[in-house]
Amino acid sequence: MTTRRRGRLDGETRTKRTAPIDWAPSELLVIETAAAARGQSPVTFIAQAALAVASGRYRLTEGRGAAGFTPEQVTLIRQVLDEQTRVRRLLASTAGSLNQLAAASNSGVSPTTRALHAALTYLRTQLTRHQHVTNRIADLIAPR
Fold first, then answer.
1. Mean pLDDT per segment of 10 residues, for the chain of length 144 residues?
2. E strands, 6-69, where?
3. What is the DSSP letter of 16?
């Protein structure tokens, strides 16, 4: 039995659409960067990559693989993507905490200044981490 949709990247919502595929922002960044490096549109890149995989032409070999990355680079990219997924989870929990503070405030229970300050400081920290990881991904895929 085949599944109709591919699994989500650790719960990340898809906000971008390329042909019939919904992409999470981090997924689309990888696709767009790889396509731009080859002078292709994302749709053309996806179609060619899918056909190469389906026809058995895509396989990693010694040195650089079919995607132009060494196995070590692929491993590093995957590690950074895993880190980004962890940071996105922390951002989601931060948003939940801020919503709880807002709900308390709307019900007449004012959160303390300390609680608000701590929540905003944590949010800023996680946003900075997310930006750092996103920049690392871009640098790994298409170094400046």
1. 43 62 81 83 80 64 56 80 88 88 89 89 90 84 68
2. 16-18, 21-23
3. E
Q: How many CB atoms lie within 10 A of CB 30?
A: 17
CA-to-CA dists, residue 84 to 12, 97, 134, angstroms = 11, 20, 7
CATH for 65-144 is 1.20.5
CB count within 10 Å of CB 8 equals 12
What pTM, to 2 d.p., does this model score? 0.48
CB 23 within 8 A of CB 14: yes
143: which DSSP letter?
A: -
- What pLDDT score was predicted for residue 56? 66
Paired with 21 in beta bridges are 18
How far apart (Å, rounded) are the C-alpha atoms in residues 130 and 103? Answer: 26
CA distances 42 to 13, 34, 69, 80, Å, are: 19, 8, 18, 22
Do 79 and 140 contact (CB within 8 A), yes or no?
no
Q: Residue 93's CB: how many other CB atoms inside 10 A? A: 11
Q: Domain map of the chain by residue range?
A: 9-58, 65-144
